[in-house]
Amino acid sequence: MISRTAKKTLLALAQEFPVAVVTGPRQSGKTTLVENSFPKKPYISFDELDQLEMARNDPRGFLNRFPEGAIIDEAQKFPELFSYIKSRVDKNKIPGEFIITGSQQFFLMERVTESLAGRAGFVQLLPFSIDELNSAKRLPDKLDDLLFSGLYPPIYDRNITPAHWHNGYITTYIERDARAVINIKELSLFQKFLRMCAARTGQLLNISDLSRDCGISVHTARAWLSVLEASYIIFFLQPYFKNFGKRLVKTSKLYFFDPGLAAWLLNIQDVGHLAIHPSRGALFESLIATELIKQRFNKGLASNLYFWRDNLGDEIDIVLDNGATYDLIEIKSGATINQDYFKTLNKWPKISGEKTKSWLVYGGNEKNHYKDTTILPWNNLKSIGV
User: Rounded to 5 degrees, what are φ and ψ at 253?
Assistant: First the structure.
């Protein structure tokens, strides 16, 4: 079994709060993580209809079956239970009494924050990180292999063909979750929407263009984007707004959490096809941005990633906001260092009037330095601060 970095954080939260909540996309390894972290706790999944019905029919009686607490999986299917858990943990005051997981943060987080405010610690578990695969000696040697396969655990735990798994994932999970949240009558249109989103990964989001290309209203496009975001399929990077005396772009950028899923939606057939595909650079940018987010999530922290762009075309791919300071990160998928990669980083002191730590993450394999910039290979990002 591949060890998860978030386990340390989860165990710490269970010592600090009566409830620990693990959210993340379906098939990201939440169940495996919580069962491995708390092997003595009873495990209940609300994916099992009989367990769900028992909880709905008699919430107090259901909880009384577990005098020392339990793991409750897919808890978003009965969020009314949280008010009963609140009464229980307020009475017992036992750290780590309940471990709750869920794959629909849209419902789960809203009800948890309403009922369990101040009583719950949170971990967001995404698919494997590069570091986790590397530590287990399961990381592909070639970047394109990783971009094509993605990082979802079943692909590595069960040796499933990536294309087969991604096809089943879209059908079984994403469409089912989407139907559970909003009434989608035409699944073929929703699949078209997914593919259009994949084609826009790493780009500024223009909802009017997206809705027009898909033949849906802007209102519908916003609703569908919310579902994909709540299901941890996509995320948005917001622009960094610190005023440097120039007109700044204020539109968010769209990314997919998993490059392999986005590659499948783009109809990329194999690794050779990916190597020449025009979206390869965007998929790489999405991979690196997600890896930096995983570093934060695995420590129980919120994302601190932004991007910066002005109306003259100058752009920094990622700005890490550290509070009093910030780091700049450029992402380039090429394996050969090109001086053009440092164009905006070199201009930054003039643009901002400040010097700051800067990084270049690229598709090669050697760590290096250029002037004040640290150059990092795609498979070794640990030195970038969380």
Answer: -110, 140
Instruction: Give the tens place of pLDDT for each residue, 156-179.
Output: 988 789 999 999 998 887 767 777
Task: Determine whether 17 is exposed, middle or buried from the number of CB atoms within 10 Å of its CB (0-12, 13-18, 19+).
Answer: buried
Q: How far is CA 2 from the centre of its chain?
A: 18
Alpha helices in 78-217 (DSSP H): 81-92, 105-115, 130-135, 143-149, 153-157, 162-169, 175-181, 187-198, 207-214
- Beta-bridge mates of residue 321: 326
Q: Which amino acid is at 131?
A: D
Residue that the structure tokens 């099992």 belong to: 48
Judged by DSSP in three states, 259 sits in helix
Q: Which CATH number, 3.40.50.300, 1.10.490.10, 3.40.920.10, 3.30.420.10, labels domain 6-124?
A: 3.40.50.300
Query: pLDDT tens digit string along 199-240?
Result: 999 999 999 999 999 999 999 999 899 889 988 999 999 998
Q: For residue 331, which phi and psi values (nearest 5 degrees)?
A: -125, 120
Tokens of 110: 């809203």
CA gyration radius for the chain?
A: 22
d(CA 46, CA 104): 13
DSSP 126: P
For the chain, give every domain's residue range: 6-124, 130-377
